[in-house]
């Protein structure tokens, strides 16, 4: 295969056309590399790493480079079931100039680059599948350029969502995208994260205004122009959203400018139990169809609510349940609650259990966010794996009912929790990692679920990303021509496949 032209070369524009001439990427088995080849490759890379350590230390200091086993292990895993793939070395840059300088060294010596935020991802996105250098961005923790009157702020990748909201506490503003974990905001942009508030406030894709990105060769770009932060723009290609959801495969996000929102005058939460899954999900769809601007509407099935009761010392009825939250003025919240109550009661829902003061609301949503750990506690010693499908709202009742039936018929432990207000739900599969038969059964279930979602015009991943586990499903979802176009973009921005290699796109036949 011909080498791609360097970044900035006039020929780059032809790169998007070249992939269309390649043979189809799907269904072509790729021969596995021989063990001897892998050993030789690892030995050669280790020699290169040794040769560049002094350059790394000159850039970010002695304390900014680590080859310790524990540190490398920490940076080779996330919260997923994918096995740990530690990098060869971990670097800790303190500013974008250091990130750029480190990337230039890696580019010169063809060392893979894996960005690392807080390690809370769920699809194996930080594993160093080809070894290389983990860029741990925790030391870049500045909150920059807060513009209260314009409702925006710029942050570095070491800033987490909880840190930002604590900083904003006295301004009357907040950042509502809430994936549960206290994730890095730049990492959230990289995976296009969302969470419980997405039904009203949108996902990261709708809330990122501008990004500063370091490309594979160390070039620093600003996707909407340096310092730009308009509320909208029609200026050229949408480079910002190209990098949102790119999972570190196109560049390292070193700053993100975010939309902020005013803290609502009133916030009220409620819990409502239902006689069946169908009744709870039908209520969700009807609430949205009625135009209620609900802030959160979360579904937990009977298995999940039982797990939460035990883990968080709650006492909710063990039936399908909705957790709801309403934001707005006192009067508008009253209207939202009244309409919602009428709908839930018409579907057999019980009376609301209220959580109005801040402490009670926080306890309620902490229980919801602890669902992951509550599910794991059902089978001590086991691991949890979260599926992540999303479908159009009208198909939501059907897919949840069918999925629940699938779980029961196959005797799988998979409590269901989901951000059903935007059609996204998760089966938190609890599996014994040492039981090959059970692992295989969960894998088959996950594929059935994903294909069920695709058959209903949905997606295999609503918010966790593709990472390692959903690369083949992505091919099925978008089709070979779209995959070839993605590969063309990857080749243009990262011709040597150094940026988080092995993620999102399947390895190509060479």
From TrEMBL:
It is found in: Mitochondrion. The keyword Mitochondrion applies. It holds the Pfam family FAD_binding_4. It comes from the Eukaryota. Coiled coil: none annotated. Keywords: Acetylation, FAD, Flavoprotein, Mitochondrion, Oxidoreductase, Transit peptide. GO terms for molecular function: D-lactate dehydrogenase (cytochrome) activity; D-lactate dehydrogenase (NAD+) activity; FAD binding. GO terms for cellular component: mitochondrion. Residues 82-263 form the FAD-binding PCMH-type domain. It catalyses: (R)-lactate + 2 Fe(III)-[cytochrome c] = 2 Fe(II)-[cytochrome c] + pyruvate + 2 H(+). One of its GO terms (biological process) is lactate catabolic process. InterPro entries: FAD-bd_oxidored_4_C (IPR004113), FAD-bd_PCMH (IPR016166), FAD-bd_PCMH-like_sf (IPR036318), FAD-bd_PCMH_sub2 (IPR016169), FAD-linked_Oxase-like_C (IPR016164), Oxid_FAD_bind_N (IPR006094), Vanillyl_alc_oxidase_C-sub2 (IPR016171). Its cofactor is FAD. Its EC number is 1.1.2.4. The keyword Calcium does not apply. Involved in D-lactate, but not L-lactate catabolic process. Interacts with CSRP3. Belongs to the FAD-binding oxidoreductase/transferase type 4 family. This is Probable D-lactate dehydrogenase, mitochondrial. It comes from Anabas testudineus (Climbing perch).
């Amino acid at each position: 295969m011909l080498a791609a032209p360097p970044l900035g070369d006039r020929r780059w524009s032809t790169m998007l056309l070249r992939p269309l001439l390649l043979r189809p990427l799907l269904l072509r088995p790729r021969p596995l590399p021989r063990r001897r080849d892998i050993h030789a490759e690892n030995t050669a890379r280790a020699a290169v790493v040794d040769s560049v350590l002094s350059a790394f230390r000159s850039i970010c200091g002695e304390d900014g480079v680590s080859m310790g086993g524990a540190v490398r292990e920490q940076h080779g895993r996330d919260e997923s079931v994918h096995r740990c793939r530690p990098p060869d070395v971990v670097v800790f840059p303190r500013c974008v100039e250091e990130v750029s300088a480190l990337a230039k060294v890696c580019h010169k010596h063809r060392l893979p680059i894996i960005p690392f935020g807080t390690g809370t991802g769920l699809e194996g996105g930080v594993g160093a599948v080809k070894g290389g250098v983990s860029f741990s961005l925790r030391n870049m923790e500045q909150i920059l350029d807060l513009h209260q009157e314009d409702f925006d702020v710029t942050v570095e990748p070491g800033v987490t969502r909880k840190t930002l909201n604590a900083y904003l506490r006295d301004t009357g503003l907040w950042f509502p995208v809430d994936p549960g974990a206290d994730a890095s905001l730049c990492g959230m942009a990289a995976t296009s994260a969302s969470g419980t508030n997405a039904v009203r406030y949108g996902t990261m894709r709708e809330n990122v205004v501008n990004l500063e990105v370091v490309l594979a060769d160390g070039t620093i770009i600003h996707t909407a122009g340096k310092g730009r932060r308009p509320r909208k723009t029609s200026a050229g290609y949408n480079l910002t959203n190209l990098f949102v959801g790119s999972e570190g495969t196109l560049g390292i996000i070193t700053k993100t400018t975010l939309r902020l929102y005013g803290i609502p005058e009133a916030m009220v939460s409620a819990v409502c139990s239902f006689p069946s899954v169908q009744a709870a999900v039908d209520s969700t769809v009807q609430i949205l169809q009625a135009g209620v601007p609900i802030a959160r509407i979360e579904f937990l099935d009977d298995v999940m609510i039982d797990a939460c009761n035990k883990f968080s010392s709650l006492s909710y009825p063990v039936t399908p349940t909705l957790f709801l939250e309403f934001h707005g003025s006192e009067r508008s919240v009253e209207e939202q609650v009244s309409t919602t109550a009428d709908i839930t009661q018409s579907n057999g829902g019980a009376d609301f259990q209220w959580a109005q003061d801040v402490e009670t609301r926080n306890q309620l949503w902490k229980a919801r966010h602890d669902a992951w750990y509550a599910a794991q506690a059902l089978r001590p010693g086991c691991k949890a794996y979260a599926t992540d499908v999303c479908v159009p709202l009208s198909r939501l009742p059907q897919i949840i009912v069918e999925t629940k039936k699938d779980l029961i018929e196959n005797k799988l432990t998979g409590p269901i929790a989901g951000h059903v207000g935007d059609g996204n739900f998760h089966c938190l599969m609890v599996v014994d990692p040492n039981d090959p038969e059970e692992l295989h059964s969960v894998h088959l279930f996950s594929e059935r679920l994903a294909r069920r979602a695709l058959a209903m015009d949905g997606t295999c991943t609503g918010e966790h990303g593709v990472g390692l586990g959903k690369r083949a499903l992505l091919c099925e979802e978008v089709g070979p021509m779209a995959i070839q176009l993605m590969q063309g973009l990857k080749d243009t921005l990262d011709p040597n496949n150094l940026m988080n290699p092995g993620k999102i796109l399947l390895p190509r036949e060479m």
